[in-house]
Design a protein that fits this description.
Layout lengths: L1 H16 L13 H12 L7 E9 L2 E9 L7 E7 L4 E7 L15 H15 L2 H5 L1 E4 L10 E10 L2 E13 L5 E7 L15 H11 L2 E8 L2 E8 L6 E3 L5 E2 L19 H5 L1 H5 L5 H9 L6 H9 L11 E9 L7 E11 L4 E10 L5 E7 L11 H15 L1 H4 L2 E4 L8 H7 L1 E10 L2 E13 L4 E8 L14 H11 L2 E7 L7 H10 L4 H18 L12 E7 L7 E2 L30 H9 L17 H9 L17 H13 L16 H11 L3 H4 L20 H9 L18 H11 L3
Helix pairs in contact: 1-12, 1-14, 1-15, 14-15, 16-22, 17-18, 19-21
Length: about 750
């Protein structure tokens, strides 16, 4: 019974943590009041003739969900979510005709759209809310998008309050608000920023209590050395006390990977394995006949003889598949499902086993069975001892080259640990005394029955670079704090709390006595408060802390030899920043250059050099960003290496924009060649090739390549190019500024 109650409490805790802690200025708004208020402030027209609604009640809080729609073929609708005080939390306007199909250039500039967004925010919120907001720069947009997006977070005395935020989306053609979302907590008592530790002291605390470590890291089939954080970025430093805090403690309730229910967690979480295609029976037969892999029968025999599974003749093979492993596709894996099912006796057991199809080595298993009742018989230390004895038996060589890691990703609150007896242990591979964080052994243990019910091994045979010559840790800290750094911000650190009405409803639905559920809820809330070091009376209150956090806007991976920031793939990190040019202020192409930059199209800065000749590869890079299949090059401003250049030309050759023999990356581009590529990109080249039907009025038409007459006439007709009075100057080399004008004009068609 206690276990059932604990599961109910987990559900309640997860649900209540999602509830806004907004304190209403006034309550009791009726449906009629809500409709009138929403229609008035949002100016919903009478064209929206159909209406329906919903209402959610959480304790004493009420949220209205209102929806208006038009009786048309497009399904146009407006949805509004507002609380009982009239605070609008969400507004969504769906208008099928709001964006012109195929249009690529916005009618509204980003600055114009920003004014619309901010006017809307002011309309729905008190002035003090708007005054607290700070616009957070979003990623550079692509011309394929249909709206401008703005994300604001609140600040208090200059310190970010990221849990209070507003998001607005503005249609870039009509200027309509498409989406508005507000997340806000009111009546917060903020700790004073003046009382915070200095940045110097915070950095010292980080080094002493969190810190970086030298690690081997996997990228594809290569390993690289880097300094990485010992603990994940979820850990923060209390800026008042200097203590390390794990905010996720306040959100813990169940295992994300279904560990709570005893099965399939690792397999479900292994996306790489899930993505690998299963082989067909014919393919399996061919591989088995080659003699390189064990057969399905041999794999099943290995699984059945594995003592920990306790398999008898009542188990059937419920499924089997052979597939490639994700380990660089070098290995094959047998994926077996063994089932014992006796529903009358309520005896159910399901085992999933992964075996190396070449060696028969056990790679992972998950055992699903009915939850054991009774008290937890194993402490964490006793469970750990049993797990290590198990690893010494099945993987003695690998286990002795690991180190136990107290995972900061376990997502069970102390109550759930005691109630369910579930333990998770991870052992990270060590190579020459250095953690190889991508390789590990992971075991799950049930403290009630003393059984291991989950095992997962991630282990690759790869070459490891020498650590000779790596920078000292103190040197790395200098790079880390300068290039990544810590941020000061406010965080909500609420502990779980329970709404009696919700606890009672869930308990009744599960067949648990109401009084029992209520008493356990009270006891559990007290337990949480005690184990978290908070007075019991404070457990149900909002708690806001001032903390130092690692800047998550950049990777915390530092090259062990240079201190350079790296992406997870081991490649140098390049910070994405809005393109700004310093040399276009008085150039005739300034408007077009800036308009394209807003939609992510441009060339490498900070100088644009508009009067320089453009190279073929740079013009084609611009072309690649305005075609449907050019997504690999969207928002790129330069080709970084020969491989990217080759990929660009391969793409454009496949698309028919560049013909064989026309490739000349470093060559200057002539005006007639630019027109040729643009007309092909627009898919008008078949018409342009009918050169005899076109009349060219440029006085220098005899200088135009005879095969490109149609391309030039079409470009002139579409206002892509205008020429110099009555002259086109086809052989003149194209300037970078003029190239942008051509791209800009082609997007207006």
């Amino acid at each position: 019974m206690k276990r059932k109650v604990s599961l109910i409490l987990a559900i309640i805790m997860v649900t209540t943590l999602c509830i806004s802690s907004f304190v209403h200025a006034e309550q009791g708004m009726s449906l009629e009041d809500a409709i009138k208020f929403a229609k008035g402030i949002l100016e919903i027209s009478e064209d929206y003739t159909e209406f329906n609604y919903g209402v959610n009640n959480y304790g004493e809080e009420k949220t209205w969900n209102l929806r208006w729609s038009k009786d048309d073929m497009y399904g146009s609708s407006i949805e509004v979510m507002m609380d009982d005080s009239g605070d609008i939390l969400r507004y969504y306007n769906y208008n099928y005709k709001g964006t012109e199909s195929g249009k690529k250039l916005p009618n509204l500039s980003r600055s114009e759209a920003q004014k619309i967004a901010e006017d809307f925010i002011k309309k729905l919120n008190p002035q003090d809310v708007f005054d607290s907001l700070k616009l957070v720069q979003s990623d550079q947009r692509s011309f394929r998008e249909t709206s401008h997006f703005f994300y604001y977070i609140a600040t208090y005395d200059g310190v970010p309050v990221p849990f209070n935020n507003i998001r607005v989306t503005v249609n870039y053609d009509t200027g309509e608000i498409q989406d508005y979302n507000k997340a806000w907590t009111y009546d917060i008592e903020f700790p004073k920023a003046d009382d915070a530790l200095s940045m110097e002291d915070a950095e010292k605390t980080y080094k002493e209590k969190l810190g970086l470590q030298l690690t081997y890291n996997l990228a594809g089939d290569k390993v690289y050395l880097a300094y990485t954080p010992v603990y994940s970025s979820q850990y923060v430093i209390d800026a008042i006390t200097g203590e390390v805090v794990d905010p996720s403690q306040s959100m813990r309730g169940v295992y994300y990977d279904e560990m709570l229910f005893g099965g399939m967690g690792e397999r479900a979480g292994s996306a790489k394995e899930q993505a690998v295609p299963v082989l067909t029976p014919e393919e399996i037969k061919s591989i088995e006949e080659s003699g390189e892999l064990i057969s399905q029968e041999e794999a099943e025999k290995i699984a059945r003889e594995f003592k920990i599974f306790e398999i008898d003749d009542s188990f059937i093979l419920d499924g089997a598949s052979l597939r490639r492993g994700w380990d660089f596709e070098r290995n094959y894996i047998w994926d077996l499902y063994l089932l014992k099912e006796d529903r009358e006796a309520k005896d159910y057991k399901y085992i999933n086993v992964l075996l190396n199809a070449k060696t028969g080595e056990m790679l992972s298993f998950d055992i699903s069975y009915p939850m054991a009742e009774g008290e937890n018989k194993y402490t964490e230390e006793e469970a750990k001892k049993a797990v290590e004895e198990f690893l010494e038996k099945i993987q003695p060589e690998k286990f002795k080259n690991t180190k136990y890691e107290k995972s900061d990703n376990d997502v069970i609150i102390p109550i759930m640990e005691r109630e369910t007896g579930i333990y998770n242990f991870r052992y990270v591979r060590m190579v020459k005394g250095i953690p190889f964080v991508d390789n590990y052994l992971n075991v799950r243990f049930d403290g009630r029955n003393g059984k291991i019910y989950g095992f997962y091994m991630n282990w690759q045979e790869v070459d490891f670079p020498s650590a000779e010559g790596v920078l000292k840790l103190e040197e790395i800290y200098d790079f880390f704090f300068e290039n990544v750094g810590l941020n000061l911000e406010y965080r909500k650190m609420n502990l779980p709390y329970f709404i009696p009405e919700m606890a009672r409803a869930v308990a009744e639905a599960a067949g648990v006595a109401v009084d029992a559920a209520a008493s356990v809820a009270v006891d559990s809330a007290a337990d949480v408060a005690v184990t978290s070091g908070m007075p019991v009376a404070e457990a149900t209150k909002k708690s806001v802390s001032l903390v130092y956090t690692v800047n998550t806007g950049k990777p915390s991976i530092l090259d062990a030899f240079t201190g350079e920031l790296l992406n997870a793939d081991g490649q140098p990190y390049v910070e994405e920043a809005p393109i700004e040019y310093t040399d276009i202020s008085d150039h005739y192409a300034k408007e077009q250059i800036e308009a394209l930059v807003e939609i992510g199209i441009g060339l490498e800065g900070p100088t644009f050099r508009p009067n320089e000749k453009i190279k073929q590869k740079d013009f084609l890079l611009l072309i690649s960003q305005i075609i449907d299949r050019g997504y690999e090059f969207y928002n790129k401003t330069a080709l970084e290496n020969a491989s990217e250049t080759e990929n660009l030309y391969n793409l454009l050759i496949r698309e028919g924009i560049v013909k064989e023999g026309e490739k000349d990356p470093e060559a200057a581009l002539t005006r007639e060649e630019s027109v040729k590529f643009v007309i092909r990109a627009l898919k008008y080249d078949k018409i342009a090739d009918l050169k005899d039907i076109f009349k060219c009025e440029f006085l220098d038409k005899d200088e135009i390549d005879a095969d490109l007459i149609g391309h030039v006439v079409l470009a002139k007709g579409f206002n892509i190019v205008n020429g110099y009075g009555n002259y086109f100057r086809p052989k003149e080399e194209l300037k970078r500024g003029d190239a942008i004008i051509i791209i800009y004009n082609s997007l207006k068609i």
